Structures are given as C-alpha cells and as structure tokens.
UniProtKB/TrEMBL annotation, chain A:
Residues 1-27 have a biased composition (Low complexity). GO terms for molecular function: ATP binding; ATP hydrolysis activity. It comes from the Bacteria. Residues 1-32 are annotated as: Disordered. Keywords: ATP-binding, Nucleotide-binding, Transport. PROSITE patterns: ABC_TRANSPORTER_1, ABC_TRANSPORTER_2. The gene is ssuB. Residues 37-270 form the ABC transporter domain. Coiled coil: none annotated. It comes from Ornithinimicrobium tianjinense. This is ABC transporter.
UniProtKB/TrEMBL annotation, chain B:
Gene3D superfamilies: MetI-like. This is Nitrate ABC transporter permease. Keywords: Cell membrane, Membrane, Transmembrane, Transmembrane helix, Transport. Its main location: membrane. The keyword tRNA processing does not apply. The keyword Cell membrane applies. PROSITE patterns: ABC_TM1 (PS50928). The chain crosses the membrane at residues 7-24, 63-82, 94-114, 120-138, 182-206, 218-239. One of its GO terms (biological process) is transmembrane transport. Coiled coil: none annotated. InterPro entries: MetI-like, MetI-like_sf. Belongs to the binding-protein-dependent transport system permease family. The gene is ssuC.
C-alpha cells in the first residue's frame, strides 16, 4: 500500500499525472517514456514432488506508463507464473519486479488483475454491483464516490442494466465484462490481464478486445495483456513481448506500428497486420524448437556466468 | 392455487398417518398405545400449563444456548483450523479422536467435573453439536477456490476483511450443512442431558412419566419433542433460504448446463 492516489481518468498520458517529485510537469511525450513497471531478471523454480520445475528462467523487460503491451508465448511458457509474480501473488525465486519505483512484495494498491477463469474470479454470493464494489469497500472509498465509480465502470463495459443480477446468471462474456468493470472501478495505474478471453466465443472475444482498447484509450491506464493468441496480441498491442517456451526467456520484443485507430475488420485485413502476425508466428515456432535469437542467448549466458 | 398445493403437500402425509393410527386404534383399548383423541387432550393437560414454564422453557433455553455456542465455536474454530495448514495437520488426528467419542458418555464425566447444573447440560449439547459445524467449516475454508482467493488478495483484501468478505461467505454452504446436523444432535443431547440426575426439563419429565407408567403422558412428551424438531427445521430452512439464496441459484445454473 505505497500509494493510494487514483489514476488519471482523462486522456491517455494526461499531463499532470506525473510523479510529484518532477520539477516541471513533463509533456505527454516525456511521460510516455517513464518506466512504470520493470521486470528484472525474474526466475521462478517451482518445487514439486517430481523435482523442481523451472517455469521461468530469466525475464527482463520494462513497460512504460500508458503503454498497452501484450505478452505472447506458447502454452506452458510460464505466462501465468510471470503475471502472478508481477501481481505480487507469487515470490520469484530470484530477480525483482519494480512498480513505480517500488519493489513489489505483495499485491500493489495501484494494480488490478483480470484472470482467465472469470467464472471463478467473481464472488458468486455478490451481485454484479456488489462484485465491483467489494474492492472499493475494502479500500474504504466513501459511499458516494463508490457509487459514482461503479456506475461509470459498469456503463463503460456495457452492463449498466445488469447491476442487480448475479454473475452466474450471466454469459461468459458478460462475466468477464464484470471482472473488467471491477478492475476499472479500482482505478489502477496498471491493469494485468491473463488470457482473459481464451474461454469466450469468437464474436464476444472481438467485442471484448475492442473494449480493452477503448478502456485503455479513455482511461490512459497501462495494460499488460497476456495471451497465447498471436492475432489477438498484434491487434491489441502497441508492442508484443514474445516469450520462449519453458524455461522461459524473452524471445523478441516487437513494436507494433499499426495505426492507433483499429477495427476488427480493417486492421486485421491489412498487409502490415499479416506481416507482423507472420513474424511473430515464426518466432514462436523458433521458440518452440528451442532456438533463441543470438543476441538474447548471449545476454542470458552473460547473466548466468 | 400454488399456495393451496404446497399446503396440501405439507399436510397430506401427517393427516394420512393420523387417520391410519385412528383406524388401527379404533377398537383396541391398549394400555401402551393411546388413541389420537386421548393423546391430544393429554397433551393439552400436561404441557399447556405450569409445566411449560417449569420444564419446557428451561430445556429449550439450554438447547438454544448450547446450539449458539456450538455454532459459534464450530465456525470460529473451523475458520482458524481451515485457514492454517499447520493447525490443520496438527488437529486432524485429535479431532478424529474427540469426534469418535459419543457425547452421552461425557455426561457422567461432566457431572463430576462441573456438577449437576445447567452448565453441564449445555456443555453436553455443545460437545455433540460442535463437530458437524467445525468439520464442515474446515472443509469449506479449505475448499475456497484458488482463483477467488488470488482475486481477493490482488485487491488487497486480507486479514479480517478477508474473513468477512471471502472466507465466511465462501464457507457458508458448508457450515450451514453442519448447522443442520447440529440441530438434530442438539435436540437428542438436550433430552439425554436431562435423563441423568436431573429434576426438571423435558427429558426428565418424559423419563419420569415412563417410570410411573403414565404412558399417554409419555407419548405426549415424545410428540412435543417431534414438534420442537419440526420447529427447528422450519427456522433453519427460513434462515438458509436467505443466507444461501445465491448458492441454490448457482447450483441450479450449473445443473442445467
Ligand atoms: N504450482 C506449480 N507447481 C509446479 N509447477 C507449476 C506450477 N504452476 C505452474 N507450473 C509449471 O510451470 C510451467 C509454466 O506454467 P504457467 O501456468 O505459468 O504457464 P502458462 O504460460 O500460463 O500456460 P498456459 O498457456 O497453459 O496458461 C508449466 O510447465 C507448469 O506445469
Ligand atoms: Mg496461463
């Protein structure tokens, strides 16, 4: 609980949301450069009955404030493990995660997580409204403020009509919207999402992808989005971090230079999209075959020495 | 129409059983089995009067106190044991041991230790009724979904908030099952605790009737016990419907999938 100031709710990277120590307010551009999340040499070895399992070998990358970064990797690459470590739910075996200058040692107040298993991450004894409200109640947000944030968040995810329903009365896509609304109402600086749409049908999935872009645009929140779907990572991200298969390192960090305005129909049929998709697909195939690009492999060996 | 139908379902079988009983005892003049009419008038004579205040109310009070204590202890203990792996592993064999002891055998021990008084009787009720609540609560706390638990953690819900916002509601289907079992165990132990070295209470009165061959009076006491059981079940399901409305809804959805 290092910081409790709410995130800016205006445009992305709104000036004035800067660190208070900055002598002059940085411009939006400068602020985009500011590193929000820093993953430093994170390694995770699970002790297990059948011997230790090295899920993550050595991961290092930065996420800047206001960025929408996707992490792709083959199944079992350690994506969930990484996310749990970033979220302060799991201790890394070695290495460190730094959020807004503070090492993460427990769940940070300025972070919200959306899990893949929406059916298991909503509180079944609470209504939709109750679910969105719970973290705010726990954070002792005053009632009037709470009501405003809940209304806005549910409005934003298109569930303004469903306040009094229970999660189990809703479809999968709607349940995941509730989980997103809950995260949004919490006003985090960074939103972690672990394959949030892996279990919903294709149409719902497209809608939810657009919802994530929309929320990211409107709130200026930093988003780290984990997926195993290459298309999804290219469509959503400004940047795609490709993970190798386990034991995991960063395979490649790809900048997605698609225009900011994206549409399911147009964007996905551009040549640029196809090229990026092709490139990432290739890298993942290499990753699966255990071939790591030379410079990274060299980097890893250096660190290991 | 629907109300009428549900009343029918509640009343039909008891009515049929009473009718059967009435038919079977029509010609007989058995000393051991009274006729329905007889029983009703005896019931009124015996229980609606001073005996209600002298025997029934104290018994029910002890039952209520015993049940409340057992439920509170069971839930609190279950939360503590269920939340801690160390406590769980430490307590497992001990719990099995104590649970295996039939509470009636504690009556003589408690009589010696505590004396023959209300405390002893309440303790007998607690000693039997606490187990289903405790064990079910442990089970419920242990079974909390990992994703739900991670969600709560990631939103900074820990300590007492975690207990009230996550653990208690998540374990409520389990401890409600435990409470239901505790009610019937409590009623049995209420009677048993009064059968030894006692001078008042429902159990005492029934044994007293039996020893003095007041058979119809004895039967009326048994009927009263049955009615108390029905009353307890009624209160339980009233509360349960409210507390676990979400759970029944959830189950219904899961089953229809
Ligand atoms: N608690 C655990 N104990 C032991 N091994 C584990 C544990 N959790 C995960 N693993 C192992 O660590 C590796 C990475 O798992 P993780 O769930 O992080 O992968 P993932 O990339 O999220 O996979 P998926 O795409 O299937 O979600 C896997 O080999 C898995 O078997
Ligand atoms: Mg995963």
């Amino acid at each position: 609980m290092s910081e409790t100031t709410p995130s800016p709710t205006g445009q992305p990277a709104a000036p004035g949301a800067a660190a208070p120590s900055a002598p002059t307010a940085p411009t939006a551009r400068e602020e985009r450069q500011e590193v929000l999340l820093s993953v430093r040499g994170v390694r995770k070895i699970y002790p297990s009955a059948a011997g230790p399992v090295e899920a993550v070998r050595d991961l290092t990358f930065d996420v800047r404030r206001g960025e929408l970064a996707c992490i792709v990797g083959p199944s079992g690459a350690g994506k969930t493990t990484l996310l749990k470590i970033i979220a302060g739910l799991l201790e890394p075996t070695s290495g460190q995660v730094i959020l807004e200058g503070e090492p993460v040692s427990g769940p940070p107040r300025t972070m919200a997580v959306v899990f893949q298993e929406y059916g298991r991450s909503l509180f079944p004894w609470l209504t939709v409204r109750g679910n969105v409200e719970l973290p705010l109640k726990n954070a002792r947000v005053p009632a009037a403020e709470r009501a405003r944030r809940i209304d806005e968040a549910l409005e934003a995810v298109g569930l303004a009509h469903a306040h009094r329903r229970y999660p189990w009365q809703l479809s999968g896509g709607m349940q995941q919207r509730v989980a997103i609304a809950r995260a949004v109402a919490y006003e985090p600086h960074i939103l972690l999402m672990d394959e949030p749409f892996a279990a919903v049908d294709a149409q719902t999935r497209a809608d939810l992808e657009d919802l994530v872009r929309d929320i990211w645009h409107r709130l200026g929140v930093t988003v780290l989005f984990v997926t195993h779907d290459i298309d999804e990572s290219v469509y959503l991200g400004e940047r795609v971090i490709i993970l190798s298969s386990s034991p995991t390192v960063v395979q490649e960090d790809v900048h997605i230079d698609l225009p900011d305005e994206r549409s399911q129909l147009e964007t996905r049929s551009t040549k640029q999209f196809a090229d990026l998709r092709h490139h990432i697909y290739e890298q993942i195939q290499l990753a699966k075959a255990g071939i790591v690009p030379a410079q990274i492999a060299a980097g890893v060996t250096q660190k290991e020495v | 129409m629907r109300a009428l139908r549900s009343v029918f379902y509640v009343v039909a079988l008891p009515a049929a059983l009473v009718a059967l009983w009435w038919l079977l005892t029509l010609g007989s003049d058995s000393f051991w089995v009274p006729r329905p009419g007889e029983l009703v008038s005896t019931f009124r004579e015996v229980w609606i009067g001073p005996r209600f205040m002298d025997d029934v109310v104290p018994s029910l009070t002890r039952l209520a106190v015993g049940l409340v204590l057992a439920i509170a202890l069971g839930i609190l203990g279950g939360l503590a044991i269920g939340s801690s792996r160390v406590l769980r592993r430490l307590s497992e064999p001990v719990l099995e041991f104590f649970r295996a002891i039939p509470p009636p055998v504690l009556v003589p021990i408690l009589m010696v230790l505590v004396g023959v008084n209300d405390t002893m009787k309440v303790l007998v009720i607690v000693s039997g009724a606490v187990w289903p609540v405790l064990l079910n609560t442990i089970e419920g706390v242990r079974g909390i979904d990992e994703v739900l638990s991670d969600t709560a953690k990631s939103y900074g819900i820990h300590g007492t908030s975690r207990i009230t916002m996550l653990t208690l509601p998540a374990a409520s289907p389990n401890f409600m099952t435990g409470i239901r079992q505790a009610l019937s165990i409590g009623l049995i132990l209420m009677v048993i605790s009064e059968m030894f070295a006692s001078s008042s209470g429902l159990g005492f009165t029934i044994v007293q009737f039996q020893r003095s061959f007041a058979v119809t009076e004895m039967w009326s006491g048994i009927v009263l016990l049955g009615l108390i059981g029905v009353l307890l079940a009624g209160i339980y399901s009233f509360v349960e419907r409210r507390v676990l409305r979400w759970y029944h809804g959830l189950k219904e959805v899961e089953q229809s999938e």
